[in-house]
Each structure stands twice: as structure tokens, then as C-alpha cells.
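Dear support,

I submitted the protein below through the web form. The confirmation email said the job was done, but the results page showed an empty box. After a refresh the structure appeared. I'm attaching both so you can tell me whether what I see now is the final result or a partial one.
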Amino acid sequence: SNPCLPLPVLQATQCQMVKDLRACLLGQSLRVDCHYENKTSNPLTYEFSITKDNRKHVIHSTISVSENIYRSRANVTMHKNLVCLYLQSFTTSDEGVYMCELKATNDYTGNQIKNITVIKDKLEKCAGFSLLIQNTSWLLLLLLSLPLLQAVDFVSL
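What the results page shows now:
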């Protein structure tokens, strides 16, 4: 049986799973969201890279050394279950297959990897880019976190 199948919380597996990888345009920057399911409280290391012309270029990483041309333009923010890459001054020369690779310290199941192909003309703007459509739990979280909507009790009337 697959050890990575969803299990009751008490029975958390070792699998650090990258759930989803999405990209959008934020002004002149590319934003790549790497969603993962955190099964451990161990520190998380990450690597964002791009493959173009059959070569892998590291953009931002805590695992290996990133390339100079990207390092000055890239930054990463980490939230609960989300690692976000921002690449400034995004142009068509930055098109390619972006990869998010995550590894939890002392987690021996190996690195978790997901790819996304990024084409500038096909990117949506981040403002109109919604996680909510695909994921209702995000909608619930948002509703619960917005003070304006805390009067949401009227729904049950």
C-alpha cells in the first residue's frame, strides 16, 4: 500500500508532499506558489529552479547555490503550507519549466518535487488569480479570517 495516502492526523506519514504549484503575474514580477502538506515540524528547505534549453538553473534555494543572474531578482517568502517565489522584472527570457523542490530536515523519504511550465502570455494576473475556486477550504479559511465576515452567523438563520 502507498505510505503517502492520506491518513488520520494521528498517523502522520513521513511524506512531505508538494500538493500544488501555481504561477501568476504580479505587476512585473512572476509569483510561483508552492503549496505543500506539512507532516512534520522539522525545518523545511526549498529550491526553486528553472529548466530552459535543457539546462537547470537554480533561482533561489536553501539546498544549493543559486545563480547570480537570478539571485539578485528573486526572493522567497514562507507561510504556513506555502512557499512563494517572487522573480522581479519577469520577461519572456524567463519562460521555461519551473520546479519547486522541498525537503524537510531528517525526512528520509526524499525530496518532493513539482513542475509548472511558465509562458508569459499565458499567465494570469495574481489579482484575478484565485485559489478559492479550486479549493473550498481556502474559501472557508478566508471567510473565517475576515473580520467583516465574522457576522457570518446570519447564514444559519
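Response: this is the final, complete result; the empty box was a page-load delay. The first helix runs from residue 68 to 71.
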